[in-house]
Design a protein that fits this description.
The structure is a single chain. The chain has two domains: 131 residues, 3-Layer(aba) Sandwich (Leucine Aminopeptidase, subunit E, domain 1), CATH 3.40.220; 315 residues, Aminopeptidase (3-Layer(aba) Sandwich), CATH 3.40.630. It has 13 helices and 20 strands. It is elongated and about 80 Å long. It starts with a strand and ends with a helix. Keywords: Aminopeptidase, Hydrolase, Manganese, Protease. GO terms for molecular function: manganese ion binding; metalloaminopeptidase activity.
C-alpha cells in the first residue's frame, strides 16, 4: 500500500472512510458529510457498527467505534474494511480521522487496515477478479502532528504481524526448521541483524542434547537459530527465546485429537521472529539476542522414548515422562544457551506450551510466569496497553517438587492433570541459571484460534505488539 497525508478529502474520488468515536457523533458526521445528517436508527456510532452511503457520487463508509475505544478494538474494526468490504475498494481510499483520534489510535487503525489485505488462501488458484492491494493509494486525513512517523511505524508493525500470521498459517510441509532458518537469514539481511544457524553437528558440539533429542524422530533436520540485533545507542540487552516446534505429533506419546492444528506449535517462534524483524526495522535503541530452537516432533525408529534419560545444555539430566512435553525441552536448551553465552539484562520466552494455560484463561490472554515482580508488572502493563493481554500465575517453590525425578536431575512432566502450566514453568526455571529477570509466556490459547477473518483457525501474531510495547515503555 502507498500512504500519503492530505488536509482534506475533497480532491479524492475513491472510498471515504469516516471512523466515529465518542458521544458527539451527530455533530461530527454533519461536519464530515458537508452538513448532511444520518438517521440515528440506522447509524449512531455504536461499537462494531458500520453504514454505507453515497454523497455526490462518492461512496462513504462510516465505522462505529463506540464512546470509548482501545487500540485492539480499533485495529480489528479497520481490519474488517478490507477483509469484509473488498468490493468497496478500487484504486484509492481516504481515511478521515477526527480530533478524537490520537497518534496511537491512528497508528492502530492503519495497522488494522493493512492487516485486512491478508488472507490464508496461499494455495488457491487466483481468480481473475481477485484484488491485490499492494498498489492501493491510501490518503490519511488528520490534524495530528508527526503523521509521517506514524505512517512509517504502522507499515512496519503491520508487515511484522503479517509475517507472524504467515509463519503459523503456512502448512508444515512448507514451514520446516530449514524454512525458519532461511527466513531468519533473509530478514537479517534486509533489516540489519546477524544470524547464526547451528545444524545437528554444531548443536551436538554445543551440548544442546535436549533440543536434539526432540528432533530425532523427524526426517527434517533441526535448526538452532540465533539472531543478534545491536544498536549503537543501546542501554539494555533483551534476550528472547521462542518455541519452534514446526509440527507436533506428540512423538511416541502421540496426540489422539487436534493434531491437525499442530502446525501452530511454533507460535512462540513466530512471535520472536516477527518481533526481531520489527525491532530491527524500527531501529529501536536496544540490544537484542533472540533464539529459536526449531524442530519437528515426529515418530520413527529413532524417536526419543518415554522413560529415556537425556542430557541438556545446562548439564542437568532429564527423565522423559512424556514425549508430548517436548516444547519445554527445546526451550530449556535455548534458555540455557542464551544465558551462558550472552549477558542479557532481561530474559523472556514465548511458547504454545500447555493446554493447562488454556484451561485457566481460555482464549482471552496468555499465562505469565516470572521470578521478578518488576518484569512481571511491565509485561502485564504492556499487555493491557497493546491488547495482547497476559496475566500472572504463581511460581511458588512448592510446585518445584512436582518435577523431581528418582533417576535424573529433573523430569519433563509431572504426569498429573493439575497445575500443568505452573509445573512447566518451574521446569523451565531450572535452566535459566538463576537469571534474576526472567519471564515465561505460555501463549497456547492466544497464538492461534478462531476469528472472524478466516473460516478456520489461524495465526494471531500474539506477542509482537506486546514485546514492542514492553520495550518502548522502558526507553
Amino acid at each position: 500500500m502507498k500512504f500519503n497525508i492530505q488536509s482534506n478529502s475533497r480532491n479524492n474520488s475513491g472510498l471515504l472512510i469516516i471512523p466515529v468515536v465518542g458521544s458527539n457523533w451527530s455533530e461530527l458526521l454533519k461536519e464530515k458529510l458537508g452538513g448532511k445528517s444520518v438517521n440515528p436508527s440506522i447509524f449512531s456510532g455504536k461499537k462494531d457498527s458500520s453504514y454505507q452511503l453515497e454523497i455526490g457520487g462518492r461512496l462513504v463508509l462510516l465505522i462505529g467505534l463506540g464512546e470509548k475505544t482501545d487500540v485492539s478494538s480499533i485495529e480489528k474494526s479497520f481490519r474488517r474494511v478490507l477483509s469484509k468490504n473488498k468490493d468497496l475498494v478500487e484504486k484509492s481510499v481516504s481515511i478521515d480521522f477526527s480530533a478524537e483520534f490520537s497518534t496511537e489510535l491512528i497508528e492502530s487503525a492503519l495497522v488494522g487496515f493493512q492487516l485486512g489485505a491478508y488472507n490464508i488462501g496461499f494455495f488457491k488458484q487466483k481468480k481473475e477478479d481477485q484484488k491485490d492491494f499492494a498498489e492501493l493509494e491510501v490518503s490519511v486525513i488528520s490534524q495530528e502532528s508527526g503523521l509521517e512517523k506514524t505512517l512509517d511505524r504502522a507499515a512496519k508493525i503491520a508487515a511484522a504481524k503479517i509475517e507472524g500470521f504467515k509463519l503459523v498459517d503456512l502448512p508444515p510441509n512448507v514451514i520446516t526448521p530449514a524454512y525458519l532458518a532461511d527466513w531468519a537469514k533473509k530478514s537479517g539481511e534486509e533489516y540489519g541483524f546477524e544470524v547464526k544457524i547451528f545444524d545437528q553437528k554444531k548443536a551436538k558440539e554445543e551440548g544442546l542434547d535436549a533440543f536434539l533429542a526432540v528432533a530425532r524422530g523427524s526426517a527434517k533436520a533441526p535448526k538452532f537459530i540465533i539472531m543478534e540485533y545491536r544498536s549503537p545507542n543501546a542501554k539494555s540487552h533483551l534476550g528472547l527465546v521462542g518455541k519452534g516446534v514446526t509440527f507436533d505429533t506428540g512423538g511416541l506419546n502421540i496426540k489422539t485429537q487436534g493434531m491437525v492444528y499442530m502446525k501452530s506449535d511454533m507460535g512462540g517462534a513466530a512471535a520472536v521472529l516477527a518481533a526481531t524483524q520489527l525491532i530491527a526495522s524500527l531501529k529501536l535503541p536496544i540490544n537484542l539476542t533472540a533464539i529459536v530452537p526449531a524442530v519437528e516432533n515426529s515418530v520413527d525408529k529413532d524417536a526419543y522414548l518415554p522413560s529415556e534419560v537425556i542430557g541438556s545444555h545446562a548439564g542437568l539430566s532429564i527423565e522423559v515422562i512424556d514425549t508430548d512435553a517436548e516444547g519445554r525441552l527445546i526451550l530449556a536448551d535455548g534458555l540455557s544457551y542464551l544465558v551462558k553465552n550472552y549477558q542479557v539484562d532481561q530474559l523472556i520466552d514465548l511458547a504454545t506450551l500447555t493446554g493447562s494455560s488454556v484451561g485457566t484463561f481460555g482464549y482471552e490472554c496468555g499465562a505469565l510466569f516470572s521470578n521478578s515482580d518488576t518484569i512481571s508488572d511491565l509485561l502485564r502493563e504492556a499487555g493491557m496497553q497493546s491488547g495482547e493481554k497476559v496475566w500472572p500465575l504463581p511460581m511458588w517453590e512448592s510446585y518445584r517438587s512436582e518435577m523431581d525425578s528418582e533417576i535424573a536431575d529433573i523430569k519433563n512432566y509431572h504426569g498429573k492433570p493439575i497445575a500443568g502450566a505452573i509445573t512447566a514453568a518451574k521446569f523451565l526455571e531450572a535452566f535459566i541459571h538463576e537469571h534474576p529477570y526472567w519471564a515465561h509466556l505460555d501463549i497456547a490459547g492466544v497464538a492461534f484460534g478462531d476469528s472472524e477473518f478466516a473460516k478456520t483457525k489461524s495465526g494471531t501474531a500474539f506477542g509482537v505488539q506486546l514485546l514492542l510495547k514492553f520495550i518502548e515503555n522502558q526507553l
